[in-house]
Design a protein that fits this description.
This protein is α+β, with helices and mostly antiparallel strands. It has a domain of 60 residues. 26% of the residues lie in helices and 30% in strands. The chain has three helices and five strands.
Length: 111
């Protein structure tokens, strides 16, 4: 399976299909350390963001800033990870901080 089809299968399983239907597909899952090592070696991707979901699962974004490839992993407690999505053309966006925003420099937000 290609990287795109693996990600698509994982996303379909995560969103639309019941668990028993997903068992029919080859899941792109495994020990987190092995998956991250693969992404580092094969794609040059490094972790750029991590978030903790309710229930203890972690969402992790890995990116190769030079090539623009990216991957999103879901890791459950115990270190088992599955791909959520992968892709290309990643762009990081700098968020303004309170120190860099001047009054009137941002558009007004409706209330």
């Amino acid at each position: 399976m290609t990287r795109w089809s693996i990600a698509g299968t994982a996303l379909a399983c995560a969103i639309a299909l019941p668990a028993h239907a997903c068992a029919q597909f080859q899941r792109p899952c495994g020990p987190r350390a092995a998956i991250v090592q693969h992404l580092n070696r094969s794609y040059g991707e490094q972790t750029v963001a991590v978030g903790l979901a309710h229930g203890g699962a972690a969402i992790e974004i890995l990116v190769n800033g030079e090539k623009g490839t990216w991957s999103v992993l879901l890791t459950v407690p115990g270190g088992y990870s599955c791909f959520v999505a992968t892709g290309e053309h990643w762009e990081s966006i700098d968020r303004p901080t309170a120190a860099t925003v001047r009054p009137g420099s941002l558009p007004a937000t409706p209330h």
